Amino acid sequence: MTPEVQVTTGVHGPGRAEIEERTLRTDRWWLMPLGTFLGFSAFVVYATIRAFMGRDYYASPYLSPFYSPCLGDCVSGASDFGQPFEWWPLSAALIILVFPLGFRMTCYYYRKAYYRAFWFSPPACAVAEPHGSYSGETRFPLLLQNLHRYFWYVAVLFGFILTFDAILAFRDEHHEWGHMGLGTVILLVNAALIWLYTLSCHSCRHVVGGRLRHFSKHPVRYRLWTWVSRLNGSHAKYAWYSLVSIAVADLYVFLVANGTIDDVRFF
């Protein structure tokens, strides 16, 4: 006869109140993780399809943020930094998406969000998780979460690239300056939200103000630290806003590129 294994972790750990219920919360606590699950899943499905399509990502002068910078075998006019990976047999998006994806996957806010929504670790505050053990981020693959600070530096570079794309969007389809369309506005808004998300990052806060013993001796870094700290309070909102803006920008370029809609020109 197999002896019964006594669970001694989580809510059943020693010293914890003997409450068999998973939670005593009476509100609809499951709405937040459910919404996160649906939102993330929709984005992952859409982004995966678009990344592997390898077409309809450039409608002069608009370049989809999923394919920027376009370094593979790109269509004419889409590459502003050369094509060093022209030999790449797959979609050009797969060359660079690992970097913005790595930045978001290791983001402190996103960790909290998808740990709760997909792994139920825990699903919500004051709600017991179903796992019998907990190792945190001390083992592979979660040990890779420590790379977030390095992905941040690459994310800053991508912020400049997307800003450059938005500036180039002030041209017409013949690359003549002095024009502006709805695509220009969408790419500008996307670049702005990407910057807000990147600069509100916890790693950015540490870069500008970390390892300082006396703020009074570093007034410039202290000023930057206070500014980033205010942005950091809305980091979760910027994470969602920028995620939606990327998808919207790509969808608009896709629809214009395949001829489904025409770009709305203001001047």
Short key terms for the protein model shown above:
single chain; 267 residues; two-stranded antiparallel ribbon; membrane
Q: Describe it for me?
A:
The chain has 267 residues and is mostly helical. It has one domain. The protein has helices at 31-53, 93-96, 98-105, 108-118, 148-168, 182-199, 202-209, 219-232, 235-257; strands at 58-59, 62-63. A two-stranded antiparallel sheet has the order 1-2. α1 runs parallel beside α9. The longest helix is centred in the N-terminal third of the chain and has 23 residues, at 31-53. The N and C termini lie far apart (81 Å). The model has no long low-confidence stretch (mean pLDDT 91).
Query: What is the number of helices?
Result: 9
Strand segment tally? 2
Q: What's the shape?
A: globular
- Distance from N terminus to C terminus (CA atoms, Å) equals 81 Å
Oligomer state of the chains in this structure: single chain
